[in-house]
Amino acid sequence: MTAHDTLPSRSGDDTGGDDRQPPRRRAPRRRQSVGGAIVSLFAELLIIAGAGTGLYVVWTAWWTDVVAVQGQTKLIDGLGQTDPTTGTGTEHRGPAPVLSEPKDVEDVFGTMQIPRFGADYDRPIGEGTDREKVLNTIGLGHYQDTAMPGAEGNFAVAGHRVTYGKPLNQIAELKDGDAVVVRVTDKATKFDVWYVYKVTDSQIVTPDKVETIAPVPNKPGVEPTADDRWLTLTACHPMWSAAERYIVHAKLDYWMPVSEGTPKELAK
Fold this sequence. Notes:
Elements: H1 34-79, E1 108-113, E2 123-127, H2 131-135, E3 140-142, E4 153-159, E5 179-186, E6 191-205, E7 229-237, E8 244-257
Parallel strand pairs: 2-3, 4-7
Antiparallel strand pairs: 1-2, 1-5, 3-4, 5-6, 6-8, 7-8
């Protein structure tokens, strides 16, 4: 052979079969320990639980509000309240007419409007404070055996701050002097009266402080006089907790038959 017939060097040839690298063996897959499997399963369960909690929060915070407000609007329509006479009427400050307390839980006997909560705020008031039958459906519940609107004593009302229409969501925004307007209507007797209360104070208490809804607020055992015609609003505090109660007291300023007009506090 001549010099030109020599084989090409291996370093420059990638077509020969003898110089290829043998295939690499895959490293054996490590088996997960029992402890690791448990941790992984627990992590997956936490993710699923988190997603479920998120959906539950959306349902309770949004969907229950939608359903409750629709139902509460129908309850107000069922009262048959007529449009009040145009213009403001006479403010009566003497003894007020009072509707008898409903005999049955769930009976709707009036509505509440609070200008501080917006011009569209108008919620029904039902008898009793049963969570399922009243607070989750009607919205505002009258503590049984407390005074009726306009009467001597304390007209005490409970409501949710969150979920189910959250009628007292803004309770902490109420200020001294704010109006709370209650309208009591009974089609059978043609009873239809406005009661305008004015906020006097607020406080945060533990649930056992029932003296806040006493006939004379925070003075258990004291008999109310003609000057003691109170309204008390109660709601859970803080938000999403039942650890405490947010309390607002208001005192009757005046009353007015709906046939005479609309309270100036509701004038638009």
